[in-house]
Amino acid sequence: MTAHDTTLTANPEITVRDERFNRTNTPSRWWAGEPFGTAWHNALSGTFPRGEAFFIESVKAFRDGTDARLAAEIRASVKQEINHTREHVAFNRLAADAGYDMDMIDRRTAQLLDLAKGKPAIAKLGVTMALEHYTAMMAHEFLANPQHFADSDPEVRRMWEWHAVEEIEHKGVAYDTWNHATREWSGFKRWMRRTIIMMIVTQRFLNNRWKDATELLAQDGITGWRAHWGLTKYLFGKPGVLRRIFPAWLGYFKPGFHPWDHDDRALIGKYEGDYQDALLPA
């Protein structure tokens, strides 16, 4: 079952917002001295330029034969992802100017993506679908809970909010593409493959982002138990993004799951009008 042949959901229109952020690379404009939020968001952002390219190619590999609506959604989401790549390159440059080794994360991401070379295209799509669920879960949390950006620079916060809005908008695209690509599979085979992939992706995602974040913290002089305890409190305590997304993560394993089972379009409207006052010209 897909969102295209059922009245279960009504996906929002996917809007490409060609926005610019963080073009003034002043190190003092960073995360207001909060090291654990800085490390976590740097760790995430460092993966996006290569990761977004992987997502794009994985979905485009199965666009032939899709219905008109899904084909249009793929085109729009690809444009969104291209813009996200550009803005995270700028964000990563800002972090590098503040003294962080972002090339380290880029190299590790490249090594991980090299593991996918030679794998079947459907396996790459399954990985993309699982990671897009992660981005959608975190996007929801970042928009719904202002604590996550309480210590950040306002323009940095607006960039993450912009990214989060678009991740919510296209959160069903990779999933619907998977359903199209696996339309001849049994429901059980679909469920089994996507849940196994999610378990593998979860282990690698958490392990590598943790490694990235703790290495970045070391560059701030925070090492050993202080780094691990501080990051644990940040991610599982307050504001606790990983703790708070756990129910949504569990939902992925439900037979018949679809990303739009959780309709959070209200968050898009909540933040839509806030951009215009502070954005740089496109």
What does this structure look like?
The structure is a single chain. With 282 residues, this protein is an all-alpha fold. It has one domain (32-272): Ferritin (Up-down Bundle). It has 10 helices and no strands. The protein is 65% helix and 0% strand.
Largest beta-sheet details: none
Give the % helix. 55-70%
Beta-strand residue percentage:
under 5%
Q: How far do the termini sit from each other? A: 38 Å
Number of helices: 10
* Number of E strands: 0
Would you give the CATH topology?
Ferritin
CATH architectural label: Up-down Bundle
Number of domains: 1
By CATH reckoning, the class would read Mainly Alpha
Label the structural class: mainly alpha
Shape: globular
Which spans have pLDDT < 50 for at least 5 consecutive residues? 1-9, 275-282
> Taking all residues together, what is the mean pLDDT?
88
Element-level helix/strand string = HHHHHHHHHH
Radius of gyration, in angstroms, nearest whole number: 18 Å
